[in-house]
Design goal:
Helices cover 20% and strands 26% of the residues. By secondary structure, it is of the alpha+beta class. It has a domain at 145-178 and 289-512: Purple Acid Phosphatase, chain A, domain 2 (4-Layer Sandwich). The strands form 5 sheets. The protein has a 7-stranded mixed beta sheet, with helices on one face. The chain has a 7-stranded mixed beta sheet with strand order 12-13-15-17-19-18-20. Strand 1 and strand 2 form a beta hairpin. The longest helix is centred in the N-terminal third of the chain and has 17 residues, at 3-19. The chain is globular.
């Protein structure tokens, strides 16, 4: 889609989806060869008086356009106070567009703050599963928050068992930090029959999302409460940076086209609002989400705007090449300014950075040499220390960094900078493990014991699968690491491996 047409086309589709019968041939009785709600339902991006509800019509999920026939069906939606829908508070109709993959995004307005609701979608052929949504507390409220954060769900490497356990938790919210899909087509015959192994086009990415969305455990977790989502690299291409892909033979224009396809499919499959962008390739997902005055979430993007990884990517002994060049950026100038200025202005009790890659600089080699990941914040040391310095000045003792990506759990004290020893502790980082990426995993990586002395800011590590459950009050942040012992076969139980606490205004993380 050309950039100059993007905004006008997207606005036209938005009008269409609101239901303007003079613009398009619509139908209230589409011809369907199966259940159109195979991919489930979801809610997300809640506010005190609104929430997005989502589904996508796909009676044949791996076929082009999900098996829909090219018509423009009208879907009814309802939001009610009760699961039986006897007390409906909002209802409407939404016209699905093939140009947007028959996805449905309804921004339900006029809801009451701090309330649970039920929602559903309906066609003459039947209704969707019933989902629950929750609005956030009103501004000024300091209502406690129970939420979990997750990341990295590689379909071929394990079952999504931990989602079953997460769905059983009494949660207000889920934050997903990226790698919702992996861009490799994998071994699934249903995907390969239509799309081969390489995931490049929007239809390819749609099929990959469909493969994941069909998982019952993932669907159940989405039904239980609203989600706040962001992306990492595998929603597009492993370790991509801006318009530089993993495959060096791809030109910037080829990468731009691939990114446009991936970003469009991402939006089509997530409960997020209409994007701010000049084209699909420039989709802006940075945003804030408030839980009353208790917490402000800063939803970040550390992929689209970053400089290319230093020293050829991978893990390297530093210093090397352009590693510490002050011009290199992880977030881009505009996003960094938005975050730093916003942290200075926010009066919320807790500032929460929902982002992708580890901020603490894990030295993977024992002894004098320092071996760091070039893909994490450790590969962008000047940008990292600049951000930590801003946190030290503006929100010291009330900033929590949530991290995914690494397929392992870590608990890290974050200092005002890591350029020299002795800098004060200013924030806490909770790194969550993967849902399934990496298979069953380990209790700890073999190198952990040997390198602990080189990483004194790291308090704990584990490499099993699971999620992190958090309880947030004005005075305290508690993080429980919930892990399963295996994902390569069904039936894994969940246990709490460890629990940690941060007291607002106090430096350092305490084990409970």
């Amino acid at each position: 889609m050309l950039r100059r047409h993007f905004l006008s086309d997207l606005s036209r589709y938005a009008v269409l989806c609101a239901g303007a019968p003079n613009l398009w041939r619509l139908t209230t009785r589409p011809r369907l060869d199966g259940n159109p709600f195979t991919l489930g339902v979801a809610s997300g991006d809640p506010t005190p008086n609104a929430c997005v509800i989502w589904t996508r019509l796909a009676p044949d999920p791996f076929a082009p356009l999900g098996g829909m026939d090219g018509s423009r069906p009208v879907v009814d939606w309802d939001v009610a106070e009760d699961e039986g829908f006897s007390r409906i508070v909002q209802r409407g109709r939404y016209t699905c567009a093939p140009e947007l993959g028959y996805s449905v995004h309804v921004d339900v307005q006029g809801l009451a703050p701090d309330r649970w609701y039920f929602y559903r979608f309906t066609l003459p052929a039947g209704s969707s599963p019933v989902g629950r949504l929750r609005t956030t507390p009103a501004e000024g409220a300091r209502t406690p928050l129970d939420f979990a954060f997750i990341s990295c769900q590689h379909y071929e490497q394990g079952l999504f068992t931990a989602f079953d356990h997460l769905a059983a938790e009494d949660l207000d919210l889920v934050a997903h930090l990226g790698d919702y899909i992996y861009e490799y087509a994998g071994a699934d015959e249903r995907v390969r029959r239509h799309h081969g192994f390489e995931v490049v086009s929007v239809d390819d990415y749609r099929a990959r999302y469909a493969q994941y969305k069909l998982d019952p455990a993932l669907q159940l977790a989405h039904q239980r409460c609203p989600w706040i989502v962001t992306w990492d690299d595998h929603e597009v291409d492993n370790n991509y940076a801006g318009l530089v892909g993993e495959n060096s033979s791809e030109s910037a224009e080829q990468m731009r086209q691939r990114r446009a396809a991936a970003y469009q499919a991402y939006w089509e499959h997530q409960p997020v609002r209409l994007p701010r962008a000049q084209s699909w390739a420039d989709l802006d997902i940075t945003r804030t989400a408030n839980w009353g005055s208790l917490a402000r979430f800063w939803v970040m993007d550390t992929r689209q705007y970053r400089s290319d990884q230093a020293c050829g990517d991978g893990n390297d002994v530093v210093p090397c090449g352009e590693w510490n060049d002050p011009s290199r950026t992880m977030m881009g100038a505009a996003q960094e300014r938005w975050l730093v200025d916003g942290l200075g202005a926010s009066r919320a009790d807790w500032q929460v950075l929902a982002q992708q890659v580890m901020m603490a600089p894990f030295d993977m080699r024992a002894g004098a040499d320092t071996l760091l990941s070039m893909d994490q914040w450790s590969g962008y040391p000047v940008a990292r220390d600049r951000l930590l310095g801003a946190i030290a000045e503006r929100t010291r003792g009330r900033t929590i960094v949530l991290t995914g990506d690494i397929h392992a759990s870590y608990v890290n004290d974050l200092h005002a900078g890591f350029d020299r020893p002795g800098r004060p502790i200013v924030a806490a980082e909770f790194v969550g493990t993967s849902m399934s990426s990496g298979g069953d995993g380990y209790d700890e990586y073999p190198s952990w014991a040997a390198t602990r002395a080189d990483n004194p800011f790291m308090k704990w590590h584990n490499a099993r699968r699971g999620y992190v459950r958090c309880r947030v009050t004005p005075e305290e942040w508690r993080a429980d690491y919930r892990v399963v012992p295996f994902v390569t076969r069904p039936g894994a139980p969940v246990t709490t491996a460890t629990s940690w606490r941060v007291r607002r205004g106090m430096p350092g993380i305490e084990q409970l």
